[in-house]
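Before a computer can learn anything about folding, someone has to put a protein's shape into writing. The outcome of that step, for a single protein, is printed below:
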Amino acid sequence: MGENTEKDTIYLTSEQLGEEPEILFQEEISGIFAEEAVRRHSFSMVSRHFHQSLELYFLLEGERFYFVEQDTYHMKEQMAILVDQNQIHKTCPAGNGKSHHRFLLQLEGEALSCLLKLCGFRGLLEFGEQYRGITCFSDGEWKQVLEQLEKTGRYIARREYIEIENQECAPLVLEVYDWLVQHSPNVGQKPKDVDYPVWVSFAQDTTYLPQEQTVTLKLCIDPALIAPVHIAKWGTILNYSYIPLNEQDARRHQQLLESYRVSDTQAYMSRFYPQLKREIIDSWDRLFDDSVHLNNDQRYGIIWEIKKEWVSAVLR
């Protein structure tokens, strides 16, 4: 990342790095980016860089030199550093270890500034000016830090993720996801802080095609935690349509629609066909009924969280 880049980027490209870091955890919500990674010891940033966010860097294992403006910090285990907004910085190797293990937070945005104001600060600017620099933790304090990292070392799906992805269509999509949450056979496993399930594939060749700035996580997980979901049936639900019991029932329902001169989607979205809408929604109970067949039998799965210890590989 250079001094004049328009888009804030944490890492160099894979060509510059030569070897990808092992990402143990990565998540981003409004105002907060978190990442835990292990890098080879010899990794050194080619040039200094800066960004608009605050950067809080915890060194869990290993040694690093951290250069901030004109200052040089020799960081060891149980140390952390807060880099303020627009401070030029970089890291390079120190000591003789084989690798270093670090946890990084980047903090920015009005939402986070408002939260800090509730804690007595005037905002991110004051917080950065007051606390920037290096910190060395006692054994007791470091234990608390590690315990907190362990508590947050998981990915869960929140309502705002669906709202951001679907924008103006979000209310309709959320209706379907609310139904899924209530009727999922593994709903008893859902943690209280989870809004919606996470989708998983049972084979690598059925995962979504890779896109820019995305990764595929390979998980090692207890099958009992996964609720299989029939893809064709779920697609029918996403289209607000009827899942027929069999071919005869499909013909009956189609004749009913033709008598009203509407489609499933029109009946679902209109307030003029409450009985049709109820029939459509009631049919969705067949999503998890293996005796009801629709098209092929391909399935995805849903789980309620991803824990970092389940991640066996990160595919890019």
Observations:
- Confidence is low (pLDDT under 50) at residues 1-19.
- Residues 176 and 306 are 22 Å apart (CA to CA).
- The radius of gyration is 25 Å.
- The chain has ten helices and 16 strands.
